[in-house]
């Protein structure tokens, strides 16, 4: 019994390590500037300063940032669905000359950290006049090697007999893919969609590198810019802006935690 | 087989292969090409300089520091993340609402933007008013400089990376543990195997595909670390947190030394490629697959 209590206490301590920073973010976002400069710090602000949020929102065109983030993340997701499903199916189910070589291209892409080749890609997009456009932010990620890899595994696990049975029923290949195979690998698809959306919604690096003005800049860039506008030490305004970025994702996570976790982890097992 | 049936697979993979060729494969060759030139991006002329960029890089003290920073950061992050999350997985591998809650809590940083995490931890690690100094003060430690001191800055970034990554790693390990068939544990229990023996002889070998997967993913991630550095330290103080991708970024985008930055990119590419091959060779012979 004593051991169980100790175990629960240790678990709560572990939770604290992850929850405390977020609580601190919230607390700071409601403080006055002088209140942030007290040590040891006070957890509860005397009078919550909601104006910090308005102040953060005013540092840039946040509605635009928000829309840009949405367009880019959804755009990438739609393109990926259209490119990954057929490719993964072909690699999983067809024998064709050169398939090993082409799958090698996928594997090499999977191994190349995207952040390594941003310089040539920047020059490429600049030559294509795609800098500062939504398309320029979407196109490099219009397919995903990781997605193909994941989905191919899923397609390969479907028993051959199921497909044979469908073929005997005179179902076209198109129908087999859309009606039979895609529903069977739905968990993998959901996994990948969550991965992809969250990754690109949160992404800072590519929009930073591939934009030079506000037209296509995304939310994370806007939040990072608060520090330049407001000065480095205005932690109350910064944390307010930060909460604007974090809150939607944390709320979504709170309500669909089990689903998101199961989806994320599913991809890691095999 | 009709001609259409023969061509169909190529049509299905073509869009993806075109994207990969345009934005991953071709850029590699373009980067290698650029690494032999001196170019400032603005001028229309590129000057061929042969291997000069590589010679400059390898004799550059800063670049050597960047290489050692990146390696050190990767080793520390991968070792700590993998080790600690394996421990947490063994501890948290239970069913029930409470354990699900704990798992959710440690997982939450994984889905948060690195921008948020970097800003939040810059504030937590503030040397004057930061929460972290208050917490270690509770345990009787002196205030630390964290990111502002060259001796602690890199380790501070490792702490942030581990904090962010550990939840995901733990949950992947838990999934791995749950895929071990129960009868194997039962057989071990019948043989009255000690917990340590069970861990070493059964759990560890059965988990090796998971460990392999996580080590690779973590290494690739750590090698391209950029966001935390760009936002929290800008490579400083005195170059102590300057890592490869940030170095390439600065040389390319701030100093417009395209050829020089490309050469650094080629070196990073070689390192990552080599490590990947070594890992695949080493682990394909030793990883246990069912």
Automatic annotation (TrEMBL), chain A:
InterPro entries associated with the record:
MetI-like, MetI-like_sf
This protein's record includes keyword 4Fe-4S: no
Question: Localized where?
Answer: Cell membrane
Membrane-topology descriptor: Multi-pass membrane protein
GO BP of this protein = transmembrane transport
Residue ranges annotated for the ABC transmembrane type-1 domain, each copy included: 66-256
Q: Which UniProt keywords apply?
A: Cell membrane, Membrane, Transmembrane, Transmembrane helix, Transport
Q: Where are the transmembrane segments?
A: 65-89, 101-123, 135-155, 176-201, 235-255
Any one Gene Ontology cellular component term annotated for this protein: plasma membrane
Superkingdom, natural source: Bacteria
Keyword Membrane on this protein? yes
Which CDD domains is this protein grouped with?
A: TM_PBP2
Q: Which Gene3D superfamilies match?
A: MetI-like
- Write out the similarity annotation: Belongs to the binding-protein-dependent transport system permease family.
**Which PANTHER family does the record associate with it?**
ABC TRANSPORTER PERMEASE PROTEIN MG189-RELATED-RELATED, LACTOSE TRANSPORT SYSTEM PERMEASE PROTEIN LACG
Query: What is the protein name for this chain?
Result: sn-glycerol 3-phosphate transport system permease protein
Recorded source organism is: Paenibacillus methanolicus
UniProtKB/TrEMBL annotation, chain B:
Descriptive protein name:
sn-glycerol 3-phosphate transport system permease protein
* TM region positions: 12-33, 72-92, 104-124, 154-177, 202-226, 258-280
Which compartments does it reside in?
Cell membrane
Q: What topology does it adopt in the membrane?
A: Multi-pass membrane protein
Which keywords appear in this protein's UniProt record, sorted alphabetically? Answer: Cell membrane, Membrane, Transmembrane, Transmembrane helix, Transport
Look up the record and give one Gene Ontology term from the biological process aspect. Answer: transmembrane transport
Highest taxon above the source species: Bacteria
The segment(s) forming the ABC transmembrane type-1 domain are: 67-279
Q: Which InterPro entries match?
A: ABC_transporter_permease (IPR051393), MetI-like (IPR000515), MetI-like_sf (IPR035906)
Q: Write down a Pfam family by its short name.
A: BPD_transp_1
The family database entries (CDD domains) matched by this protein are listed as:
TM_PBP2
Just give the chief location class.
membrane
Q: Which family does it belong to?
A: Belongs to the binding-protein-dependent transport system permease family.
Q: Which GO terms describe its cellular component?
A: plasma membrane
């Amino acid at each position: 019994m004593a051991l169980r209590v100790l175990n629960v206490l240790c678990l709560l301590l572990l939770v604290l390590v992850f929850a405390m920073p977020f609580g601190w973010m919230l607390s700071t976002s409601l403080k006055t500037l002088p209140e942030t400069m007290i040590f040891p710090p006070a957890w509860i602000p005397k009078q919550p300063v909601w104006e910090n949020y308005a102040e953060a929102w005013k540092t840039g065109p946040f509605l635009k940032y928000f829309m840009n983030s949405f367009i880019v993340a959804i755009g990438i997701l739609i393109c990926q669905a259209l490119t990954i499903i057929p490719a993964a199916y072909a690699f999983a189910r067809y024998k064709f000359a050169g398939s090993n070589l082409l799958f090698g291209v996928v594997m090499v892409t999977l191994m190349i950290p995207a952040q390594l080749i941003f310089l040539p890609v920047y020059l490429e997009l600049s030559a294509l006049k795609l800098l500062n456009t939504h398309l320029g932010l979407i196109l490099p990620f219009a397919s995903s090697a990781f997605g193909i890899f994941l989905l191919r595994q899923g397609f390969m696990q479907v028993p051959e007999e199921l497909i044979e049975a469908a073929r005997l029923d005179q179902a076209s290949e198109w129908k087999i893919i859309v009606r039979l195979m895609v529903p069977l690998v739905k968990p993998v698809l959901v996994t990948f969609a969550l991965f992809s959306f969250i990754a690109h919604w949160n992404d800072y690096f590519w929009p930073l590198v591939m934009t030079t003005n506000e037209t296509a800049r995304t939310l994370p860039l806007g939040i990072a810019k608060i520090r330049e506008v407001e000065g480095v030490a205005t932690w109350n305004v910064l944390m307010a802006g930060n909460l604007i970025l974090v809150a939607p994702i944390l709320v979504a996570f709170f309500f669909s935690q089990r689903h998101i976790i199961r989806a994320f982890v599913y991809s890691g097992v095999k | 087989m009709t001609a259409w049936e023969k061509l169909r697979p190529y049509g299905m993979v073509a869009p993806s292969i075109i994207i990969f060729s345009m934005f991953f494969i071709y850029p590699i060759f373009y980067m290698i090409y650029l690494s032999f030139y001196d170019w400032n991006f603005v001028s229309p002329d590129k000057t061929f300089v042969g291997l000069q960029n590589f010679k400059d890089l390898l004799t550059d003290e800063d670049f050597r520091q960047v290489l050692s920073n990146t390696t050190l950061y990767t080793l520390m992050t991968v070792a700590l993340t993998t080790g600690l999350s394996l421990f947490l997985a063994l501890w948290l591998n239970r069913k029930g609402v409470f354990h699900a809650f704990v798992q959710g809590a440690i997982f939450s940083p994984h889905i948060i933007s690195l921008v948020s995490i970097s800003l939040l931890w810059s504030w937590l690690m503030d040397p004057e008013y930061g929460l972290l100094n208050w917490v270690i003060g509770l345990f009787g430690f002196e205030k630390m400089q964290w990111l502002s001191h060259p001796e602690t800055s890199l380790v501070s970034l490792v702490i942030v990376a581990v904090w962010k990554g550990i939840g995901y790693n733990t949950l992947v390990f838990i999934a791995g543990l749950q895929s071990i068939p129960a009868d194997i544990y039962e057989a071990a229990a019948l043989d009255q195997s000690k917990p340590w023996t069970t861990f070493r002889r059964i759990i560890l070998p059965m988990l090796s595909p998971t460990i392999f997967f996580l080590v690779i993913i973590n290494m690739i991630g750590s090698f391209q670390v950029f966001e935390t550095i760009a936002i929290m330290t800008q490579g400083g103080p005195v170059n102590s947190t300057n890592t490869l991708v940030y170095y390439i970024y600065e040389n390319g985008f701030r100093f417009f030394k395209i050829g020089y930055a490309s050469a650094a990119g080629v070196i990073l590419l070689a390192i990552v490629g080599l490590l990947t091959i070594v890992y695949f060779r080493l682990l394909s012979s030793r990883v246990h697959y069912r």
